[in-house]
């Protein structure tokens, strides 16, 4: 039987639970799947990046390991680009409506008016992200200096407090489902027991036509920048928020290790993922 591995981190040896249905669904279509901590040296016909959420502290090691894996999903070429959130500047330049984003270094002081967010360019699970009150520039400067690395500065989109973020999920370049994430940067936000990510408040969603268009445009722009075809991306998650004018804006495009919201999706979503895995294996002639 063809074998795939779900790459994870040592703190979550079997993932965070969202992917639990995938093992049996893949077995139904002739694919044996198991979990493996990234960097362990285990091999398979395809290694699928999943909950590798400690990579932010070991980025060089992680990208090197990704490059060493013979068959990786998503492709190793995606990793250095998408693990650095300055890719948002690239997408904005390509015409995608993105939350206004500046990449700054410690010592920066030209802060925006109103509420804004400061977060490291390399980060996962909202770790290191700070929501700054309007005018509290000293807090922003102190936080940026404490990060000691390049960071993003973005105006806070207040609609997130009531509407949250809408995440649109694609498998093999095709839309699958969507879910909503409640506002994360709130006073009551808490990290899960692993300390790797803020606990999310999730529910299913039906995206609007405008959200679908922005998500499709973001995915098209990304694959053009990366020199790939959409079908070469086993999965993608496009996170959108509502801007001050009511139009959707791209907050993040997750191509490396996103939660895919299976527990908030319809029952057929794991089957669509399994079909995308089969297609990826077939493209690599693993059968």
Produce the secondary structure layout.
Elements: E1 2-8, H1 22-28, E2 31-37, E3 46-49, H2 59-68, E4 72-73, H3 78-82, H4 87-93, E5 102-104, E6 116-120, E7 130-132, H5 137-147, E8 151-155, H6 160-163, E9 165-171, E10 174-181, E11 202-204, H7 209-226, E12 235-242, E13 248-254, H8 269-283
Parallel strand pairs: 1-2, 1-3, 3-4
Antiparallel strand pairs: 5-8, 6-7, 6-8, 9-10, 9-12, 10-11, 12-13
InterPro entries: ATP-grasp, DcsG_Biosynth_Enzyme
Protein name: ATP-grasp domain-containing protein
Domain ATP-grasp: 88-282
Q: State the major sheet.
A: 5 strands, antiparallel
Strand order of the largest sheet: 11-10-9-12-13
How many domains? The number is: 3
CATH architecture heading of the largest domain = 2-Layer Sandwich
CATH H-level superfamily title of the largest domain = ATP-grasp fold, B domain
Helix content: 25-40%
Counting DSSP H or I runs of 4 or more residues, the number of helices is 8
Domain ATP-grasp: 88-282
Keywords: ATP-binding, Nucleotide-binding
Protein name: ATP-grasp domain-containing protein
InterPro entries: ATP-grasp (IPR011761), DcsG_Biosynth_Enzyme (IPR053191)
Describe the structure.
The protein is α+β, with helices and mostly antiparallel strands and 287 residues long. The chain folds into 3 domains: 2-75 and 278-283, Rossmann fold, CATH 3.40.50; 87-97 and 159-266, D-amino Acid Aminotransferase, Chain A, domain 1 (2-Layer Sandwich), CATH 3.30.470.20; 102-155, no CATH class. It is 27% helix and 24% strand. The protein contains 8 helices and 13 strands. It has helices at 22-28, 59-68, 78-82, 87-93, 137-147, 160-163, 209-226, 269-283, and strands at 2-8, 31-37, 46-49, 72-73, 102-104, 116-120, 130-132, 151-155, 165-171, 174-181, 202-204, 235-242, 248-254. The protein is globular, with a radius of gyration of 19 Å. This is ATP-grasp domain-containing protein. Residues 88-282 form the ATP-grasp domain. Keywords: ATP-binding, Nucleotide-binding.
């Amino acid at each position: 039987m063809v074998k795939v591995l779900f790459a994870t981190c040592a703190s979550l040896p079997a993932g965070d639970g969202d992917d639990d249905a995938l093992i049996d669904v893949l077995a139904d279509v002739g694919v044996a799947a198991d979990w493996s901590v990234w960097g362990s040296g285990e091999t398979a016909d395809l290694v699928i990046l999943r909950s590798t959420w400690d990579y932010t502290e070991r980025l060089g090691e992680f990208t090197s390991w990704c490059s060493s894996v013979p068959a990786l999903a998503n492709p190793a070429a995606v990793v250095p680009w998408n693990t650095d959130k300055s890719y948002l500047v690239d997408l904005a330049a390509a015409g995608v409506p993105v939350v206004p984003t500046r990449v700054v270094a410690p010592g920066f002081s030209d802060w925006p008016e109103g509420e804004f967010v400061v977060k490291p360019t390399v980060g996962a699970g909202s770790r290191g992200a700070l929501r700054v009150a309007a005018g509290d520039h000293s807090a922003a400067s102190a936080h940026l200096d404490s990060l000691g690395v390049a960071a993003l500065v973005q105006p806070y989109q207040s609609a997130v407090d009531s509407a949250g973020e809408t995440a649109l999920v694609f498998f093999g370049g095709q839309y699958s489902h969507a879910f909503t994430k409640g506002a994360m940067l709130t006073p009551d936000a808490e990290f899960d027991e692993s300390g790797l990510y803020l606990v999310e408040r999730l529910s299913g969603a039906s995206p609007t036509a405008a959200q679908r268009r922005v998500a499709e445009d973001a995915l098209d722009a990304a694959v053009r920048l990366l020199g790939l075809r959409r079908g070469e991306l086993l999965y993608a998650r496009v996170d959108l928020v509502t801007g001050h004018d009511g139009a959707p804006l791209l907050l993040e495009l997750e191509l490396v290790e996103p939660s895919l919201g299976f527990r908030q999706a319809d029952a057929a979503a794991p089957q669509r993922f399994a079909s995308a895995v089969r297609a990826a294996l077939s493209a690599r002639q693993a059968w």
